[in-house]
Amino acid sequence: MFVLYETPAGYAIFKLLDEKKLEQVDNLYQEFETPEKANKLLKLKHFEKFNDTTEALAAATAAVEGKVAKPLKKTLKKILVDDVQSSLLVADAKLGTAIKDKLSVQCVYNTGVQELMRCIRQQADSLLGGLPKREMTAMALGLAHSLSRYKLKFSPDKIDTMIVQAQCLLDDLDKELNNYMMRAREWYGWHFPELGKIITDNIAFVKTIKLVGTRDNMATSDLSDILPEDVEEKVKEAAEISMGTEISEEDVLNIQCLCDEIISINDYRTHLYDYLKARMMAMAPNLTVLVGDTVGARLIAHAGSLINLAKHPSSTVQILGAEKALFRALKTKKDTPKYGLIYHAQLVGQASQKNKGKMSRSLAAKASLATRVDAFGEEATFELGAAHKVKLESRLRLLEEGNLRKLSGTGKAKAKFEKYQAKSEVFTYQPEADNTLNVKKRKHSESEQTPVKKEEAPVEEDAEVKSEKKMKKKKKQKDEEEAVEEAAAPEPEEQPTPAKKKKKSKHQE
């Protein structure tokens, strides 16, 4: 069983004499307490030395990427060609997989191998033997420097460093320009105070001072290249009646030198802004289309790099730059801020005050997605950012018009939607509702067509008459029964009574 040990000076291949010792991982360090014990367990089979630092850097880079370098491939072919059945102990799993694929050699990489590598590193000087320690230290230092430069050159985190530095310098230039302009206006204002109110543009103001000097030269100077005609006339009229004090030529020279500095800084700022815009479109095109190059560069500078910004969730991107307000709100238990650096984006600026929070939340969600595409995507296109910007503009239009967006078809959403809708219903007067009886009124046409229906009313009256007749009949029957009982009695005085009753009954019949 062979062991591959990588050093800054070259590849060392050892022969493991006792394979059973590898199974006792906890007690393996005891076998490397002294150089004699280490030499009993391991024997140096071959050492492939690097020719120079370039070859060492190539080997280290290949090992980091999990590839087999050419010197290592040749060495393994020489040693393992005779003993095909032997296995190779490797510290890196990726490198072991690559060796197994290319050379068809069984590679072992586990916790026991890691412990063995630490023990070999402890006794490396005695195991390698003929390699001087001073030479090994020099090779390690050179390889470390070369590898650091290589990583710094090709690291994705360091590509956007130019954007971060350019944006920070741009902000510093804006502050300096503002300070210099205030100083120039105050300084020249003692001589010609009216000029500052007439010319509001800073660069035009500075160029006018540089060209003219004192206000006495205003009448003879040609300012057509700097100012419009109407403004030029106002400046010349104000110069004749100015209330400013007189200044010397030395004062004018110093003011003009300050104007030269302002003009040069402004020119450099314009050039730097163009550079930043080009870098942003090359580095993060989708983010630039969504929030603009200045806001996008500030977000990247605040996060540290584009990859760091891509790792942030959209809620963090939304309030990035408002950390003090956030922690103050959390401490005082008040409302947290709705936006940070993203407030200066064009889409948030176009929204009204009540819709800025909703717009910043939507823009932060899309900007977070666009940043991840820019950071981890393979193709650098701005199609995703342009599509999201169209959607955000339509959403802003809906919010500004006051229309509600129906998100779902649930009853709650419908009720919410109907809450803002005015229902228009017209009620008509029904005269039939005034009648309290359950009698339907017939039209005149219906009465002519069906004349038989007129007898319906007297039919009800006949029923009542019949019931009365039945009652009278029952009463008569009772009277007759009583009369018969009286006639059967022996009293003579009451004999004519039934005759009378009979007559009465006949009359009734």
Automatic annotation (TrEMBL):
Family membership noted in the UniProt record: Belongs to the NOP5/NOP56 family.
GO cellular component: box C/D methylation guide snoRNP complex; small-subunit processome
Pfam families: Nop, NOP5NT
Localization of this protein: Nucleus, Nucleolus
Bias kind Basic and acidic residues: ranges: 445-457
Domain of life assignment: Eukaryota
A GO biological process held by the record: ribosome biogenesis
Region (Disordered) location: 437-509
Stated name of the protein: Nucleolar protein 58
All residue ranges annotated as the Nop domain in the record: 283-401
Subunit: Core component of box C/D small nucleolar ribonucleoprotein (snoRNP) particles; the core proteins SNU13, NOP56, NOP58 and FBL or FBLL1 assemble stepwise onto the snoRNA. Interacts with NOLC1/Nopp140. Interacts with NOPCHAP1, NUFIP1, RUVBL1 and RUVBL2; NOPCHAP1 bridges the association of NOP58 with RUVBL1:RUVBL2 and NUFIP1. Interacts with PIH1D1. Part of the small subunit (SSU) processome, composed of more than 70 proteins and the RNA chaperone small nucleolar RNA (snoRNA) U3.
Function of the protein: Required for the biogenesis of box C/D snoRNAs such as U3, U8 and U14 snoRNAs. Part of the small subunit (SSU) processome, first precursor of the small eukaryotic ribosomal subunit. During the assembly of the SSU processome in the nucleolus, many ribosome biogenesis factors, an RNA chaperone and ribosomal proteins associate with the nascent pre-rRNA and work in concert to generate RNA folding, modifications, rearrangements and cleavage as well as targeted degradation of pre-ribosomal RNA by the RNA exosome.
Organism, scientific name: Drosophila yakuba (Fruit fly)
Keywords: Nucleus, Ribosome biogenesis
InterPro entries in alphabetical order: Nop56/Nop58 (IPR045056), NOP58/56_N (IPR012974), Nop_C (IPR042239), Nop_dom (IPR002687), Nop_dom_sf (IPR036070), NOSIC (IPR012976)
Biased composition range(s): Basic residues: 499-509
GO MF annotations in UniProt: snoRNA binding
Taxonomic placement: Eukaryota, Metazoa, Ecdysozoa, Arthropoda, Hexapoda
